[in-house]
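forwarding from the other thread:

> can someone predict this with 4'-deoxy-4'-aminopyridoxal-5'-phosphate?

sure thing
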Amino acid sequence: MSDRPEMFEGVEEIWMDGEFVDFDDAQIHVLTHALHYGTGVFEGVRCYDTDQGTAIFRWEEHLDRLFNSAEVYDIDIPYTKAELDEATRELIDREGLDSGYIRPIAFYGYGPLGLNPKESPVQVALAVWPWGAYLGDEALEEGVDVAVSSWRKYSSSQIPTNAKTTGTYVNSVLASLEAKGNGYEEAIVLNKEGNVAEGPGENLFMVRDGEVYTTGLAESILDGITRRTVIELAAEMGYTVHDDATISRGELYTADELFFSGTAAEITPIRSVDDNEIGAGTKGPVTDEIQARFFEVVEDGQPDEWFTPV
Ligand code: PMP
């Protein structure tokens, strides 16, 4: 198909509802429940071309989060984690992918419309494709210019923020559209209380006086798996890590360093917020050290417990 988005060029198959199907045949009905009401849960995962061969990074944690997200919405995924694991590894193998992105999704499919989804079948799909740096290679080195969004993150008292649900990403889409429309590369969203939550698809870290801070889980954020990784790595490297910080907007402006963490964004430095230069306006030294350690880990494919060989 010639009008495919560039990122999917070369993708041959998708795993859908228990079978490998041709990319162009991975279709759903227009009256799918999840299309109308956002009743799907998903994951974003990376596999890396490590020294131990191609391996999925923190796959167990991603599968756990997928099943936990599903539980919140009463989505009974009709496959076990072991079945999804096997299908994913086979798909990566069939696609000949060395490194890239993995997108599992489970959703209420085509059934009667109406808010009660329980009469709709649960559908599951897995797709994989090559994907480089989410915000670009230059962003990893130089950092990104970000703006605090006028859109607030929804509160975990309204919609669980620890579940990765398709429908709720309209909040992230609004923040991204606004930031890009105003000439910034990414947004930071504040929570209902007006404190820093996270990026539209990333968690946020701050460095101040040589210590590392990240917004706590009660700040209406996603419990990011890269966030957990950074917390562990930074602590191992000897940094004092505050993993339940409340960060105000003003503290962003005066931070020594800021960076995003996420599966897609990996470790992306932030060089300015609302046109205020952060630190020296480029990747800071602590960010550089943590980022280097992160890329070393995914290159080495160590520690073993963080990697699932394909
Ligand atoms: N916050 C949001 C809103 C996200 O979409 C993501 C990406 N999944 C993250 C944080 C980072 O999470 P992870 O490190 O697990 O990719």
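The first helix runs from residue 33 to 37. thats all i got for now
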